[in-house]
Design goal:
Aminopeptidase, single chain
């Protein structure tokens, strides 16, 4: 498995994967995905195995000195096979290289496996947003401070 940069021909596959990973009202429209990916302040990583996209992550720069994980999507039969960790490592390293101080994301209060995954990576719940998702679920805002390494 390897990571590579987004290519415009990937958009349909990413849209299909996002629709499969998240329920309607939580998943992104094709246009929203395209807007996030196309922003000059964002970066998209594609996880690929034998030329098949098995996951992706979109992150964006936000002031002051923060990275926001917009979405991380892993194809169902590739979950718990370190695809998410590989994608998160790439995004966190990118944030560190941009001299950012923190990374944050939102996850559903009901998504126990995602919350556990992020907590194991050092993310802490800092807030909730009530009725964030279309199904009425609240979002947990989770944040990770990046440790500065000697340069």
């Amino acid at each position: 498995m390897h990571l590579r940069a987004f290519r415009p021909a990937d958009l349909e596959d990413l849209y299909r994967i996002d629709q499969a990973c998240f329920a309607p009202g939580i998943s992104y429209t094709r246009e929203a995905l395209d807007d996030f990916i196309g922003s000059r302040r964002s970066k998209t990583w594609i996880a690929e195995e034998k030329e098949e996209i098995v996951g992706f992550l979109i992150a964006e720069l936000e002031a002051p000195r923060a990275a926001h994980i917009v979405t991380i999507d892993v194809v169902e039969n590739w979950r718990r096979r370190h695809v998410g960790s590989l994608l998160m490592d790439a995004a966190e390293n990118w944030a560190w290289e941009q001299n950012l101080v923190l990374v944050y994301l939102e996850t559903s209060e009901n998504n126990v496996s995602a919350r556990s995954f992020y907590e194991a990576r050092g993310y802490k719940k800092v807030d909730d947003v009530l009725n964030y998702y279309a199904d009425g679920a609240s979002a947990w805002i989770m944040l990770k401070w990046l440790k500065r390494r000697d340069r």
